[in-house]
Amino acid sequence: MVLHLFFFVVVIPQISTDAHWSQEGMVVAGSIEDSGEGSSGHSDENNSRLCRGVLYRGRRHGQCEEDDIQQVETIIAATNRLASPHGLVIDDENQTIIIADRSNDRIIEWKIGDTNGQVVAGGKGKGYGLNQLNSPTDVLIDKETNSLIICNYGSRQVVRWLRRAGTRRGEILIADIACWGLAIDDHRNLYVSDIDNHRVLRYSLEDIRNGTVVAGGNNPSDDLRSLYNPTYLCVDQQQAVYVSDTENNRVVKWNKDAQEGVCVAGDELEGSSPNQLSHPGGIFVDTLGTLYVADTQNGRIMRWPQNKPQGTTIVGNGDPLHSPIGLSFDQDGNLYVTHRQGVQRFDIE
């Protein structure tokens, strides 16, 4: 089976719709110890206190002044720690995990098996400079240009950073957009969720000047012509876009050139039943149309077979995850999830 993971094609073994994953996840980056919900763990040494940022429905509300966080960020953001990690991607070729380390304002690359990561974008404190990031929420690999494309949410930009030693700054691809999630199709079209305008846009990476609305764009509502705070995305070979319609508690599929979406997971009402979701985050779809969803506020990862009215929990049964946000798979079908302050891998059985 060929599975599509946001931006490039990954060939992995056949995964049946009743496959199982280990419920005992292995921590492969950061930590999943409880350090406070969504805590960024920024230590303010001058005042001997802890500044915390809380992730709530996709927004970060701090209890400290912005200047406090910026002042200490580069001091305490050690490379063996993460703070509110969001989107991630697996680079099988290089055996690394690439993570949007949101509250540390950086992208960090973590060699599988290592205890420390390496900062590959940002990491210079929160800010608007080309050498900085500001609350990045998603990242993908553009193999054709050997670069990372990043949702630089806090700066309202999509940026590109080359994957070369010595790269110290990025370039702005798209400005003035409240980007949250990204995807690339086989034709090098870039899909971007614009959370503030409740829509998804498509751009050609060959000529990125103008975007086309491919989902939503109307006033926020639960109508299938609309979206309400769209976050994470994936796209299939037919250029159908799957959208985490987060505030509507559903995942919606928009076929190419469609004027409205089709609900493929969730029923718009927030809940924890098998047919419901609660503020879904990262998503993934395979060539059979089987959908995997980080059901964030229910603390579980769900699988929804195509055209089925309800899903099943594959991770988080009995021992819920702590607000899982991002998910990804490697070429062997192992599942990677961001939650708490780390990344956990759940091996396929």
From TrEMBL:
Transmembrane feature ranges: none
Ranges occupied by NHL repeats: 227-257
Keyword set includes ATP-binding: no
Matches recorded under CDD domains: NHL (cd05819)
Organism superkingdom: Eukaryota
Keywords: Repeat, Signal
The keyword Repeat belongs to this UniProt entry's keyword annotation: yes
Leader sequence segment: 1-19
Pfam name, any one: NHL
Protein name (Swiss-Prot/TrEMBL): Uncharacterized protein
Organism: Rotaria socialis
